[in-house]
Amino acid sequence: MRIRNSAKAVIVKNGKLLAIKLQENNSTYYTLPGGGQEHGENLHQALERECMEEIGTKVEIGELIFVREYIGKNHEFFAKHAHAQQTEFMFLCRVHQDSFDNGSNPDTGQSGTEWIPIKELLNFKLYPQAMRPQLISYFNGERAATYLGDIN
Q1: pLDDT digits (tens, 9 = 90+) for 93-112
Q2: Which Pfam families match (predicted)?
Q3: Which domains does the chain have, with CATH numbers?
Q4: pTM score, two decimals?
């Protein structure tokens, strides 16, 4: 199996993080907008395409703030993701609107989007969950590591 690259958008407005809301197996969880890089795309192009597909809007892409790896066999979903390995590049992004519909090609189980208060991130099932304290630190102006390692 090959290693997949993914680009994710960290969109913050008025102290809230924009997240994709997903419903699966009677459970609600959240992820950042974005997804897999396709052949011939650079990371910015992948992120622009994925945001149009998932949240239906253009994003202004800023600096790279986090890099996360996911090696499926090492985490809670190992039975389903045993062969998965992905490197995610998370960019600080801006949008010019406050509400979003699902885009042209939403993720399976995507029920919409939600603005989550950054101060309350630990109360939400946002994946990768180990990144939540890093996001809180970053937006509190504290030093946060860029490379997060193999986390979920």
Answers
A1: 999 887 777 777 678 878 88
A2: NUDIX
A3: 4-150 (3.90.79.10)
A4: 0.91
